[in-house]
Amino acid sequence: MASRKRPKTRVEPRFDDAPRSRRSGGLSVTDDDRAAPPRKRAAKGAAKGTAKGTARKSAKGERHKPATSRRKARRGRGGGRGLAGLFGGLVYWTFIFGIWGGIAVAGIVVWYGAQLPSATTWAIPDRPPNVKIVAVDGSLIANRGATGGEALGIHQMSPYIPEAVIAIEDRRFYSHFGVDPIGLARAMVTNVMAGHLVQGGSTLTQQLAKNLFLTADRTIGRKVQEVLLALWLEHEYTKDQILEMYLNRVYFGSGAYGVEAASRRYFNKSARDVTLPEAALLAGLLKAPSRLSPARNPKLAEERAQVVLAAMREQGLVSDSEMTAAISHPAKRAAAFWTGSQHYVADAVMEELPSLIGEVRQDVIVDTTVDLVLQKFAENAIHDLIAKEGEKRHVGQGALVSIDNTGAVRAMVGGYDYANSQFDRSTEAKRQPGSAFKPFVYVTALEQGRTPDSVRNDAPVKIGKWTPDNYGGKYYGPVTLETALSKSLNSVAAQLIMETGAKNVVETAHRMGIVSDLEPNASLALGTSEVTLMELTSAYVPFANGGYRARPYIIKRVTTLKGKVLYEQTADNMSRAISPQIAGEMNRMMEKTLTDGTARAAMIDRPAAGKTGTSQRSRDAWFIGYTANLTTGVWFGNDDGSPTNHVTGGSLPARAWKAFMEKAHEGVPVAPLPGTTGRVATPVARPRNIPVTRPAEAVAGGNQGRAANGTAVSRNLFPPKPDGTTTSSTGVPRPKVGVGQDSGGGGKTVLEILLGR
């Protein structure tokens, strides 16, 4: 086979428009070679051919350009595709970073969420219990407890309160799911534009979650936990329930937690009765409760309230006219907080309550025996005299206790001004009663056979080294016991205690209601052993009710909010102390104190009796008096035990007693004192139409009540606080009169004792 010569170089075929003759060994195709030549392009063919030839030349020249020039050319041709690529890259990396950011956020949520207890164990913590203390007519005396106010339902509150709070704190409350992204974004924009923090992004649900479960730390971890708990709250509770919990627990400044406590604190009214400007002020406090408190800065509080009103108008919650009226008549804050003598009552209730029902673990209602009308009369009687004559007479404090015939405390004033001093001088201060103690000496004498007509010689008497003097140094010679008691003659009282025996007098006083320790010596006749106003007043009750000791009590009933009775006072706190005859004789004797004796300033338009008392150097001035309805004791003096300016029991105390008793008995039928008409009278109509429990004959068992299970609860209202020292509760030295110690005998005259018979 003949050999075929191969070309020295390989020639690749090229499909160009150039004639074959121009390229040796090349391939080209013209339009004539196509199977179906294009139609109507004859005119354009030559032009295209020329263009293609030019393009081939350009391409040939391009192959000989440097590489750098070619790259610049390619970048120029791909300019449009570069911008699109940049945008695409941005989207890509944003997506990547979003994924990793989401993973990081999820990790943070898981990390801090794992530090919370299991969601299955989450529960709303109990609100601190509130103790609602009410008077006999159901009117509020005070709320006590950590919150300072009872919890109200959302529909019990003034409708302005939730509207104002939502308008200023969380306008999208009813539309978000616990976390408000829109509100958060709006707050961020506002803060950036303002250049500082002016809005918060937390919803009411988040704020509730923080208040219920978390601390106030501003950390990422706490914020994450707050969000998780807010989502849980929204899942478990309705919007109204969340709002109700929030309003009953949030802090409103000045120690007030919850709208009821805040309303009482600032306006002295219930949250049920709050007006629009008052609601705006309360809602405005939530931004900075302490700084905006009207008790601290009324001007800032009012400015913030106007901001709240503007927000309410912007959201259509109030009209223009309502907003204008609210701004022109701003909320008026109560003059002061914790004022009023009724708070002494509330303090006494809180001190005694644990002994009756144990630890308070739920909201309770305490029904007391106090009549707020009488309480106000009593407060005015003390306050007015000290305000008018306190400086001149060097008297800084006073106290008053009024008890009915069953031992129920109807009024109790522990001092001149509760806001300035919360010390209760009616139950905590132990003072020397002076001659107000003498009735127990006379009761003992009558029980041993003496009568009101028995005669003793009022003259200077010396018992050992002790010589008791009459007030003013005046002596009357032979006098009856009735006259001696009405004129408060010291020498006769000293003779009687030596005759009857000091131990017997101590026994009589304890039997009638004195609970403090008494020193059985001769000076006891002049009231040198200290007692409280409460116990001394209660020890006079047997005179008013015909001879029955009635231990004082102030708590009548304790119930839960659902009406379950936890404790109820029973009528078994009365027992026979003295005979009806002795009670009648003492009443006839002590009536003379008001008509002819040392308490003429206390005379009122109905049968009444009592006894004045003044301690050494006029440190303490007393008057304990009674009608057939009420027994009332009054004390004036100074906390530091300094002497008054010659104030006696027949001056300021008698006048305060009269002012109170006249008001207290308005509209009450006149009734005689027991035994003063030849028969033993039974208790009659109680002032202010408050029912009186009958003094049952020989009822025993002490001052007790019944708990919910029916068991007796031992009660010791206002127990004495013996210090075992020789100083009084004010630190003033107690007169050391140790003569005349009781030998245990009784029934002898002073002359017989002195002669050794």
Please give a structural write-up.
By secondary structure, the chain is of the alpha+beta class. The protein has four domains: 88-117; 126-147 and 338-433 and 530-722, Beta-lactamase; 151-328, Penicillin binding protein transpeptidase fold (Orthogonal Bundle), CATH 1.10.3810; 435-529 and 730-757, DD-peptidase/beta-lactamase superfamily (Beta-lactamase, 3-Layer(aba) Sandwich), CATH 3.40.710. It is 40% helix and 11% strand. It contains 23 helices and 16 strands. A seven-stranded mixed sheet has the order 2-1-3-9-10-15-16, with helices on one face. A five-stranded antiparallel sheet has the order 5-4-14-13-12, sandwiched between helices. A two-stranded antiparallel ribbon has the order 6-7. A hairpin with a 4-residue loop joins β9 (555-560) and β10. α4 (160-169) packs across α12 and α6 crosses α7. The radius of gyration is 47 Å and the shape is elongated. The model is unreliable at 20-27, 41-52, 678-703 and 720-757 (pLDDT under 50).
Number of helices: 23
Q: How much helix is in the residues?
A: 40-55%
Distance between the termini: 184 Å
Structural class determined from secondary elements: alpha+beta
Reported for the largest beta sheet, the result is: 7 strands, mixed
Can you tag this structure with a few keywords?
Beta-lactamase, five-stranded antiparallel beta sheet, 4 domains, Penicillin binding protein transpeptidase fold, 757 residues, seven-stranded mixed beta sheet, alpha+beta, 16 strands, single chain
